[in-house]
Specification:
Elements (H helix, E strand, L loop, with lengths): L1 H5 L3 H9 L5 H19 L2 E4 L1 H8 L13 E5 L15 H6 L8 H8 L3 E6 L19 E2 L2 E5 L5 H8 L5 E6 L5 H7 L2 E4 L20 E6 L2 H11 L29 E4 L12 H16 L3 E4 L8 H27 L10 H12 L2 H24 L4 E5 L20 H9 L5 H5 L3 E8 L5 E8 L4 H14 L11
Parallel strand pairs: 2-3, 9-10, 9-11
Antiparallel strand pairs: 1-3, 4-5, 6-8, 7-8, 7-12, 11-13, 12-13
Length: 482
């Protein structure tokens, strides 16, 4: 039965439960068998929650939500659940045996939707790299090629969904961490609008609003339905995204109309050379959009090319925020964090963060606000509905390339800049973006493309993503390691 359920999306699995064709515990048992079979190869799941999951699936108190009984995995960063281990990819947190004391609001909404949490997925240490290779838990391997990265920082979740362990899994995105692994693993990665999903009750925002919570899915309809289930303001949120005119699920299959789409095939400011496979993917998508009746032209926000205006202050905010996170963990575990506790690139970032003054930090925040106005103006002032770009600048890279040493702590950061010129700017602006698996190269590696809409316009993204999914279906493609 595990193979029978493995490639059904969450919507289809929930329908089986709703119509009485299967019981929740059957879905959960099947997912557990898939994890036991495949996880030793891909290392996506680092914490098992099997006994609790089976108990919850068989309980009459399982909530009657829209995804009742559907097995689910949670990234071990950001969202956490009461009584479960929570390590953030860190050796010192793992060794301290930290157990989450409560549910985040998002974890509560996952429970209310009826999901059954079967485990936690791998993530780079503190989510700071676009690959999932933490020293604490080892590398997550791409199911399309076990020698390659699954992306990051939601790489464990992406590999799990791509392998059919679960139909969807939690992720978050502070610079591309949903979209990058979605691209590398051949699945759907929707980054919602800033403020769409709450970070509460512990935090009002993460990384000064750069980071957002959501999931990775195999289908557009799952992403839309999940957004309905988990979005909306919660008590104490400092801000929230404008509510949609109608449920996001209603946008699936709805005619998008004739959209004006800007096409960008080169990296902002010429930061890096875009790999021919990624350029081919975005050109193919541009032609497909034109064939569907949309107007596509080469255009993008000129402010994107002023890379240092948004990239330099972004790093200040990230470094300062990481230093603050270390201070929080020191209070939690009751001791100082030492250089030997931390991977070299993160220690370098923390040292940088500790050296930043309050004035420098506030100046960086102000610079990000200015950059946001300049970039976002293209949608309204130039009259565009969407921007089309590659998701990343190259195919999934081999494992082992994002490694720093105490002698060369900048090595990983230099490698990062070569892969992600297209995603971080829209964490700065807070706009919604999605990576869609619309291309595979000659080596059978997935190559995602990114579509970005105006602030608050996930409805537009979902309509056109659904249209592209119907025109060029991807759900039947399965990785060789599944």
């Amino acid at each position: 039965m595990s193979e029978e359920f493995a490639w059904l999306d969450a919507t289809a699995q929930a329908e089986l439960v709703r119509t009485g064709q299967v019981k929740p515990v059957e879905l959960v048992e099947a997912a557990i068998r898939r994890v036991e079979k495949l996880n030793p190869r891909i290392n996506a799941v680092i914490t098992q929650r099997f006994e609790r999951a089976l108990s919850e699936a068989g309980s009459p108190n399982l909530p009657e939500g829209p995804f009742r009984g559907v097995p689910f995995l949670m990234k071990d960063l950001g969202c956490h659940s009461a009584g479960d281990p929570y390590y953030e990819g860190s050796r010192f947190v793992r060794d301290a045996g930290w157990i989450a004391r409560d549910d985040t609001y998002l974890a509560q909404k996952f429970r209310q939707a009826g999901f059954v949490l079967i485990g936690k997925t791998n993530t780079p240490e503190f989510g700071s790299l676009p690959t999932t290779e933490p020293v604490a838990f080892g590398p997550t391997r791409n199911p399309w090629d076990l020698g390659r990265s699954a992306g990051g920082s939601s790489g464990g979740s992406a590999a799990a969904v791509a392998s059919g362990l679960v139909p969807l899994a939690h992720g978050n995105d502070g610079g591309g961490s949903i979209r990058i692994p979605a691209s590398e693993c051949g699945i759907v990665g929707l980054k919602p609008t800033r403020g769409r999903v709450s970070w509460g009750p512990e935090f009002g925002e993460i990384w000064q609003g750069l980071a957002v919570e959501f999931v990775l899915t195999r289908t557009v309809r799952d992403a839309a339905a999940l957004l309905d289930a988990v979005s909306g303001p919660m008590p104490g949120d400092p801000y929230f995204a404008p509510p949609p005119a109608r449920p996001f699920a209603s946008e699936v299959g709805a005619p998008p109309g004739r959209l004006r789409v800007g096409f960008m095939g080169r990296a902002p400011g010429g930061m890096v050379e875009v790999h021919p496979d990624c350029l081919a993917a975005v050109k193919r998508t541009a032609r497909l959009l034109e064939s569907l009746g949309h107007h596509v032209e080469e255009s993008h926000p000129s402010a994107l090319d002023q890379v240092q205006e948004w990239m330099d202050p972004l790093w200040v905010v990230v470094a300062g925020s990481l230093a603050g996170l270390f201070s929080l963990w020191e209070k939690r575990i009751g001791r100082a964090i030492r250089p030997e506790d931390v991977e070299p690139h993160n220690w370098m970032m923390v040292e940088m963060g500790r050296s930043i003054s309050a004035l420098q930090y506030l100046q960086a925040v102000g610079a990000l606000h200015v950059a946001t106005r300049k970039i976002a103006a293209w949608w309204s002032e130039e009259g565009f509905d969407l921007l089309l770009t590659p998701t990343i600048a190259e195919p999934p890279p081999p494992l082992g390339e994002f490694v720093s040493t105490p002698a060369e702590p900048m090595a990983a950061a230099r490698r990062v800049e070569k892969i992600l010129p297209f995603t971080p700017a829209f964490n700065v602006t807070g706009q919604p973006g999605v990576s869609l698996p619309l291309h595979w190269n000659s080596s059978n590696l997935p190559i995602g493309v990114q579509l970005v809409a105006a602030y608050g316009r996930e409805d537009v993204l979902i309509r056109v993503a659904s249209q592209l999914e119907q025109a060029l279906p991807w759900s039947e493609r399965k990785p060789p390691s599944s």
